[in-house]
Each structure stands twice: as C-alpha cells, then as structure tokens.
Amino acid sequence: MRLQTCKTGSGEKAAKQARRAVLLATTAVVVSFVTPVLAQTGADTANSQRAGGEQGVTRPFNIPAQSLSSVVGAFGRQSGLQVTLATPAAGNVRTNAVTGSFTVREALSRLLAGTGVNFRIAGNGRTVVIGTGQSTVDLSAAEGTTVLETITLTGKTGRNSIAGSGYQGTPDWVYETPASVSVVDREAIQSAGVRNTRDVFNRVSGVYAGEGNGSFPTVSPNVRGLQESGRVVVSIDGARQNAQRGAAFGGATSYTASAGQGYVDVAFIRAVEIEKITNARSGNAGSLGGKVEFRTVSADDLIAEGENKGGEVNVSRGTNGYDFQGSVLGAVRSPDGPLSFVAGYSRTIMDEYKIGTKGEARSTALTMKDLLGRDGWSTFFKGEGDFGDVKASLSWMHQENDFVQGASTVIDRESVRNDSVVAKLDWDPESELIDFKSSLWLNDNMTHELRAERERYAAETNLDMGLRSFGGSLENTSRFDTAAGALSLNYGAEAFRDIATSLATSAKIAENPSFASSYTSFSPAGRRDVASLFLNGELEPADWITLSGGVRYDWSRLKGSATYYSVRDYTVTTTVPCDAIRNHYTALDYFNQVFAPANPSWAARYALYLARVWPTTSANCMPGTGTTTNTPVTEYPEHNVDIDRTYSAWLPSATIELKPVDWFRPYVSYSQSLRPPTILEAFFAGARPGDSPGYEYAPNQALRAEKATTYEVGANMSFDGVLLDDDSIRIKMAAFRREVKDYIALGYLVTDQVLDRTYTSFVNLDGTTYMRGLEFEGNYDARSFWIGGSATFLKTEWPEKTQVFSNGTTTTTGEIVAWPGDVAPKVKLTLDGGMRFFDEKFSLGARLNHVTPTQSRTLDTEGNLREVTDPYTTVDLYGSYAFNDKATLRFAVNNLTDRKYIPAASAYTAPGRTFIATMNVKF
C-alpha cells in the first residue's frame, strides 16, 4: 500500500532561534574552556616528555604468527596499549611471531619484519602509526613486499574500530573492556537484511527489540528488562532520542505505555554500541540501565586510502512487502587540507506483509490488516576537520516517515519529522593532562497524527506532538604516573533540556475546548531539565589488576502545568407558579374559545357549563404553569496543577578488573543510577481519545524518581592461534543483579483536589523490583569458517501489589493498570555459523534463533507472570559475494521455515519467509 503524506508545520521560527542559541553556546563553551587550558600547556611539557621515555621499558611478549587483524588485539594487551586497526582492509597481512622480552619498538620491528608494513611511534609512546615510511625498519623497497596504506593504532581510545573477529564482527576493544558492552557493526547490520531498525537488536545478548507497533519505524530497545522513558538512553552520535509516544489505541492490542520513539535510519550508521550498565562517565545522566548509541559514518569509512573522494550505493529489494530500501553516500576530502564532507540520501518503501503459515502459535493477523505499510526518506550530512591536535565535526540527520496504525476498519495516519544535529570539538595535545572532548546537540521531533472519525464518539481529529531536546557535554581525561601506578582521571559535565508541545484540533474541539485533553493525555506539554557532574578514576597498580571508581551527581527539574477534570452529577429543580385560567378568560370567552370547540355536544348547554364546569376549570393553571421539573446535569469541573519539582542524587560506581593471564580478564562492578520521571509521567492528565473532557487521568504530584543498584561479575577471554595459525576465539560473559526501587507504572490514584474519585495515574510501586540474568556472547573464527552465538537468561520479579502508592497518604485498590511494555522473555538463544570460500570473496551463513514466551504484567493461578505469546524457533540464511573491491552482493532469507510467531516483547505477528537481496557498489 502507498501512504498519503501528511504535511505539517514544525515551528521554523522557534527552530531558528534554537539553532542560533546552540551556535552561541558552542562559541562560549570553547572559549571559556580552551583559554585556561592553553595557559597550562607550557607547564605540561615536562609531563609529556616523561611519557615518551617509557618506550625503552622491556615487556614480555608471546604473540604467534597470525594475520594483522588478529595481532592488533594481542599486541595491545601485551604492550599495555589499547590498540586498534583503523583500516580493516589490511587485516589479512601475515605477521611474524614475537616471543621474549622487548621494548615496544623492538617488538614491532620483529612483528612486521619482512611484511613491507612500516611503523612509527608517536604521541609520547602511546600511538603507533603503521605505513608512514618513517619507521626504524623500512622494508618498502624489499623484493616481494608490498607497502600498504597508512594504518593508525592509537593508544588513547580504541573505539574508532568498528570491526574485529568477535561475535557479529565485534572489535577487540569490547573484549578488553571490563563491562557489559556489545557492538553491532555496519557489516552485521547490512548482512542481516533488517526490515526495521529495531531488528538490529534481535541477536544481541541481554537486549530485545522492545514493544513494537507493527508499522512504526521506531526503536525502543529493552536492555536487561528495562526500556522506554529514558531508562535506556538512545542516541545518535550523542543526540538523545527522547521523544515519547505514550499510547496508541486500536490494532492488535490497545497498549498503554510510555513507549519510546527513537527514529534512526541505519543506512547512515557505522556501528551500534550498547552499554548495559551505567557508570560515572558522559552519556549516563538520567539513565537507569545503560545506553544505546548509533554512530554515524564518517569520510574515512567511504574514502579509500590515498584517495580524496569515495562513496557507496546500496539497493535492496525483497519479497513479502519488502518493496525497496536504498541509499547513496558520498564523501570528499580536501587534497592537502584538514576538511572532509559526507552527504547521503536514503529511501524506504514497505508494504503490508504476510505472516508465517507454519505452526499453531497465536497471532494478530485478523486485527493487523493494512497496518504495516510505511514510506520514508532521510538525508545525512557531516563535515569533519582534522587539525592535528584539534578535531571537529558537525552532522545533521533529517528523517521523514509516513506510516499507519489503528484497527482493521479504522486507519490513523502518522507523519513524523526528526532532525538530529551534533557538533563536536576534541582537543588532544601532547600533554598527558589534556584529552578534551565536547559536544552540543539538538534533536527536534514532530509527529502529526490524523485520527479517523470514530462513529458515535469521536470526530476526525488532527494531533501534533512535538519534543525538542538539546544539550551538551564537556569532559577531559588526565593521565599521571604515580607511586601507586598509572592513574587516569576522567571528569566533566553534561546537561540537556526536553520541551514538549501538544495540540489537538477538530470541529468538536473548536466547540468544546476541554475535549482536547482526551487526545493529548499521552503526549502532554511540559519541560524537563537534566544535568550531571561526573568524576571517574582508573588506577593500574600492577600489570595484573586495574581499579576504577567514580561518582556522578545527577540533578533534574520538571516544570509546567497540567489540567484534569472531575465529574459532578446533580439535579436542577425548576418550579413555575400556578397562573389561574380566570386571570386570562371570562366564563363566556373560555366557553367559546376553548371549551365548546373541544366539546361540541355542549354548544347549547352554556347554563349547565356555567354552573358545573367553570367554577372548577377557572381555578386550574394555565399550560406551562404550576409545574415542577427535575433536570439531570453533568458538569466537568476543571482542576489545574502547577508542577515544579527537582530530583537529585550522588551515584557511585566501581569496577575491579583482574588480568592473571593474557587471555583471561575477569571483573566485578557496582553502580547506582537514577531516572527522574519523564514529561509524560509527570504531566499525565486527560482521558482516552474521544469527544469528552479528560476526566480519567490525573497527574501524580508526589511521583518519585526510580533508583537502581546493579551488581555485575563477568569475564573477557581472547585467544589467537588456538588450533590454526590465524584463528581466534572471543568470549564475553556476565552475570548481573539489578534492584530497582520506586519503579514507575500506571496505577490508580486519588488526588488531593478530588477525594471522591479514583483516577489512573503514573505511580511508584512499593517494594523492590529485581532483575537477574546471565549473558554470553562468543565466536570462533578460523577465517575459512566461523561459529558463534549469544545466550540470554533473564528473570524479573515485581513487588507484590500494595495498598499505598507514591502519593504517600491515599489508600487505593492497589491494582496496577499497565507496565510500560511487556516483560522480556526468560530465555533468548542464537547460534550463528558459516563458511568463506574463494579467498573469502564468498561467504554463506546460517542463524538459529530460539525465544521463550513474552511475559505479562499479570500473574497466573500459580503466582507466576502470565505468558502472552508462544515460544518460537526461527532459521535465517545470509551470505555475500564480493565481485571485486568495489561491488558486493548480499542476500538473506529471514524466517526460512515460514514460522508464525510474535517476536519477543512485540504486539504484532512477525513477517513470514522473506528473501532480501542487496547490491553494494563503492566508487
């Protein structure tokens, strides 16, 4: 089906003012911070020179001969540097074995001797640059060798690397990080053949795609049982996707939840990084259970080494409603200058799909008709500047999406615009005291919904819901050599503001303005401010142990007003005094005008009338007088609530990592986190959509913030050259326990202003919610074949129903109306394997997925969470063939066995068997 586009205004004047404010703020931040730092540069020179002297220190190395891509992680672990390979294309170069005690320079010389690959050591001994022609071992002219393009290995951060030999191409830095972190790289995203962005999370341990309305092109990841309402931060290059859509009515199910609305076009994404626990670092303000960051492509991803321009085109077509997904990306770099630019365009057209035919699982097929089509396009721009010590970038992703929702007979049309703008400035001079990073961002979301007329209770209605979020961060890392060992301190601040707007219009609302509250209840207007100061330190007292700990101070404020209504029924009694007939008629007039015409037989009997009828009749009341009328009246008194509340807390975190041997790195960690209520939760008021005042929902003025404590124990394992010279094993596993106090859900409430009525409101659960789990991700890659997988075991325990909620004084029934989303399944398993042929030009893989039922918020007769879906097992095939360095064909068959099932934590039946082919051409 093709969708009609609904255009709506977005407040361009306000947008211009916001962009101007962001620009001015950027200038002020940079000037205020850089000025004092520059004054210290001279004093820091001695510190920077001292670090360089460490090059002469010998270290034990035991690295077998293997490919360059595999040796990078091993060399980083054994040298003490966090090393990454910035150009994965050189990963197949064969390196030498290095065994014994050497300096970093000696080890590199032995490792690369005879390969034709050059290196140099820079950045005070913390950076190794390979392929520059400035190394101590210059073998570029040696017979039979090939000089490769420049490869940069950096010691300060490994997160520039997006590909490696781990599960789904996970880079090695993930297996060197003592925390639950998962990465899905661009290759894994493209190989999977995703229909929606949320499909990216299906195979990540501990992560679920989240509740999804079938046609919504949105993403709301569930991490370890937590999702939506900012519990898990979703961002694009740091720009938070905070927009909320609180409820949708109709379709397979009427869900009432604080649903997240992250819009991300994966055509422009180079990697997805998932952190499943909070810490005292940037990006965690207001988060309860971690963050998901989508990192966009840069010029280096598109331009080959030695070139000044490049790009790629992706075209995907498929069966079962997968009409078209395509994108084009291009990049240029100034030949001798520091600037580069990226631009891209993406288009998506999806039609209604058919569900699977195999199996007896329950489905939503009868109620999801015509709900799965969508039409969208996106643009992307990024400008980057590399000025040596200073790096800057400015990016903008613009998205337009049109889709539908509703019941099979009533269709509501959605039109969404989402703009994400991010500006970054980093300064990393030679000084060990300065590694400065800053960012400013703006995310502007506007959703226009055209609600169809509902017979008897709702006219056609236009609803505009907007959320503008903007914020920034400043952080610096300083490194010291102390008597206790190498010490690094990361410290800074971050803050953001959410401003929500909501407007409902219709012919009925024009007549009765109070009806608007019934349409805007789940998207109320309001303002939320969140700010955080953080300090985190990392100490390495010995080669085998690393200690880290920090503290974050989170502060937030909610400000605005809400209006709700009550119902007052009463009776109005109207009495009209009697007005006697004789006051208006004489006996003769009444006889001739009224009595005789009504009684013709009395026409000749006036005397009898005068004697017997008139005396009584004359005393009677005139019509409409002498009556008492009781009229029932229903009124909707208005109640206004001004809200201005603040929340704050000191939140500590700590981690201990052990490195008893090179390949095994266990760790334990602890963290506390705080999530303040969202605008929706704080200003919730109104009723379900319909033409009546909003008298069902009311704001909870005593709503408390959620607070969590998380304990985690885990381990990273990395092996190279296990059975073959160039094979590798990567394993990451963890066990966790999270305790959440004051969990927020929909329940019942009696307000201070209306004591005789019970409202639905967001309330805190008394007691503690527990989430426990085990997670595993692993991969064995022998180049000619691979086998890997992930496993998730999750148990969620909600507190028993109570009689008192967070208003602290009012006793209610204690019933909970709804959770924000269903409870994630207990078990999720993925087994992934495949083979490579023809010098790895052709790869063919298969994936087996098994998921147990999604659970409900209600209990069964045995006191367990009720299962609302059936377990399912699906099989996917995927592969690719590289014709040459410029052209690659990818293909995937999802749900090969055509299984009928409802995905984990979803409300709609999944597509049946779908074949997708994608052609990627680089230029």
Write a structural description.
About 10% of the residues lie in helices and about 45% in strands. The strands form 9 sheets. It has a 22-stranded antiparallel barrel. The protein has a 5-stranded mixed sheet with strand order 6-13-14-9-10. Strands 3-4-5 form a 3-stranded antiparallel sheet, with helices on one face. The longest helix has about 40 residues, at about 10-50. With about 900 residues, the chain is mostly beta strands.
Key traits:
five-stranded mixed sheet, 923 residues, 22-stranded antiparallel β-barrel, mainly beta, disordered N terminus
Compose a concise summary of this entry:
With 923 residues, the protein is mainly beta. The strands form nine sheets. It has a 22-stranded antiparallel beta barrel. A five-stranded mixed sheet has the order 6-13-14-9-10. The two termini are 34 Å apart.
N-end to C-end Cα span: 34 Å
Helix content: 10-25%
Biggest sheet statistics: 22 strands, antiparallel, barrel
Structural class from helices and strands?
mainly beta
- Count the beta strands: 43
Shape: elongated
Mean pLDDT equals 82
Beta-strand portion reads over 45%
Counting H and I runs of at least 4 residues, what is the number of helices? 10
The gyration radius over C-alpha positions equals 34 Å
